[in-house]
Design goal:
With 228 residues, this protein is mostly helical. It has one domain: Growth Hormone, Chain: A (Up-down Bundle), CATH 1.20.1250. Helix 2 packs antiparallel against helix 3. The relative contact order is 0.21.
Length: 228
């Protein structure tokens, strides 16, 4: 039987790699738009409002797009759970479909022109929607795993656990498992960011098909049985 620890590692690391890849690729291709989280966009909005750079409108629209994607993810999750179905696979498939649309739209509309132009905003919001879905998955379906889209909490927790270990504390099995999950997520996100940067430089928006393919592969990971 597929071990649950192995299942968790595959899903957590796979999704962290995807988030890092998409965030880096979109940031480069869309002139500084963060897709995997909204915090960076808030900072960039403040910076751009006192400069002559462009892209403020896209970053402002990222927030309602992100919220809508999370809300839709929640509604789908509730509907599936009421039917007694696991929402993980349908949500992974939905994210893959949106990422494929992101890639195809990016290729079809390139060159995108101004970061605040209709083409750049339309493409960028598809990227934001995809990672909004993943953020929803992280909170609603696999909340027991380390965060896959924002690494600050993971790094903080890993440092705390590693410090405890270096100070001679005996880590419980639960803490040891948490440490493995956080470290694997951080490493996978970093690898994904590097792959996304090089991928978009070499293949432009076609590179986004890589994380979409990984999501499709994750669909074959066996479900965790209830109560295990």
């Amino acid at each position: 039987m597929f071990a649950h620890t192995a299942r968790d590692t595959v899903i957590g690391s796979g999704l962290a790699f995807i988030a890092g890849f998409v965030d880096a690729a979109a940031f480069i291709a869309l002139t500084g738009l963060f897709t995997a989280h909204v915090t960076g966009n808030f900072v960039l909005i403040g910076a751009e409002l006192i400069s002559t750079s462009t892209g403020v409108l896209a970053k402002l629209l990222a927030l309602p797009t992100f919220i809508l994607a999370v809300a839709i993810t929640r509604l789908i999750t509730l509907a599936l759970e009421r039917r007694g179905s696991s929402p993980l696979r349908p949500l992974l498939a939905l994210e893959a479909a949106v990422l494929i649309a992101f890639a195809i739209a990016g290729v079809a509309m390139s060159p995108l022109g101004s970061p605040d132009g209709a083409k750049a905003i339309g493409v960028g919001m598809l990227g934001v929607a995809a990672t909004g879905i993943q953020n929803g998955i992280g909170r609603l379906v696999i909340g027991y795993l380390a965060a896959t889209t924002v690494m600050t909490v993971n790094v903080t927790q890993a440092v705390i656990d590693l410090t405890d270990r270096l100070c001679g504390a005996r880590l419980s099995e639960q803490v040891s498992t948490r440490l493995r999950r956080t470290l694997s997520a951080v490493l996978a996100f970093a690898a994904g960011a590097l792959a996304g940067a090089f991928g978009v430089a070499a293949l432009s928006f076609w590179s986004v098909l890589v994380p979409a393919f990984i999501l499709l592969v994750l669909l074959i990971v066996p479900d965790q049985k209830p109560g295990s």
